[in-house]
Amino acid sequence: MTKEVNQQEYLVLTKEQFKEKYPTMSDSDIDFYFPEKKILDFSIDFVGVRRYDQLKAKIKEYNNYNVINPDKPKKTLSEFELNQIKSFESKSQQNKEQNFKNEVDHWEKIHGDNSKKSSYNDGLLPDKKTIYKNFLIAYKFLNGFEFERTEESIKNIEPIIKYFAYDTTFFDSENSIKEVGNKKLTPSFKKGLLLIGNVGNGKTSVMKAIQFMFDYYFEKAISEKWDTSGDWNRLKFKFKTCENLVTEYEFLKSGQEKEIFYSKYSKGNLFLDDMKREKNASNFGITNVVQSILEKRYNNQKQYSEEKINKVRTFGTMNFHENYPNNIDFAIQECGVRYGSHIYDRIFEMFNVVEFKGKSFRK
């Protein structure tokens, strides 16, 4: 071969154009670049942070265009570009899991009680101590700094830790709300958690750390065959911002895809971040996507309410009403305005309400 093959040429040229550009290249060499099933895929192997950020920005640009121009053909990324995003995120997740494992091992080495070291083969239980310790590790790992432990912040996470540990003292936690308006609330492990607080005061970052830690230990429990893998599995939940749910719905192309979408988000444990702030979708007519999901999840929760294993629990965060800071009543009443009065009544059956106190950390 007289010239070195450029990676970009391989991506954009057809096989015939490639032959014309490199007439002296043997058929076997050409087949290396253009086999029936590609041996190499430079488009995925060379995706970096800059390219990933460009593609994410492109998605946002297209989403804005589609919302502003609902009557025009939708702009979407190509399959080629979507595969690049998928590849980058897959590799990033693998790196996160390995790095988190290193953080856990480092913690155990420094803080572990070697004289009373338990055997992981017997299965680590998700009790209060275990969840709290590993929450602190996960929080620092994901955010780059330690969780600031103050009297206020400890009271914020106390009901969350106790809830997931199935500790009955959760019912008496100071930040667990017992009354909203004229409604008396009954705490229950069959309900999910609804965290209400000021904008940017750490609700989301805390729950992301909890989710990451549960995913990590469930995978560890499966790989090491713990007898407590079922306990970790029951704690896992999917994480979606309400805005991203609407965006995903906007890209559905058929009634079948719509059914699959609602089936995916009406079952299992799901965390809905930043409720009340998302827009309505314009796909298949004007649709309040989060309202529809809450209705379907409520019906499924009632169906499974008598079972011991919690199959459908909903978690969420929302901010106080901007005109009524630190007022739980108005924050939840705003849900009635956004999602309908019937959802307002069902909130108390679906959620344990927890006040997340403190001012915004955002600058």
Helix and strand layout, with pairings?
Layout: H1 7-12, H2 15-21, H3 27-33, H4 42-45, H5 49-68, H6 79-111, H7 128-143, H8 151-164, E1 179-180, E2 183-184, E3 192-197, H9 203-223, H10 229-235, E4 238-241, H11 242-250, H12 255-265, E5 270-273, H13 289-304, E6 314-319, H14 328-339, H15 341-350, E7 351-356
Parallel strand pairs: 3-6, 3-7, 4-5, 5-6
Antiparallel strand pairs: 1-2
Helix pairs in contact: 5-6, 6-7, 7-9, 9-10, 13-15, 14-15
**Spatial order of strands in the largest sheet:** 4-5-6-3-7
The stretches of 5 or more residues where confidence is low (pLDDT under 50) are 37-45
- Assess the beta-strand content as a share of residues: 5-15%
The count of β-strands is 7
Order of helices and strands: HHHHHHHHEEEHHEHHEHEHHE
How would you classify the helix and strand content by structural class? alpha/beta
Number of helices: 15
The value of Rg in angstroms is 25 Å
**Overall form:** globular
* Helix percentage range: 40-55%
Q: How far is it from the N-terminal to the C-terminal residue, by CA?
A: 58 Å
Largest sheet data: 5 strands, parallel
Q: What average pLDDT do the residues reach?
A: 85
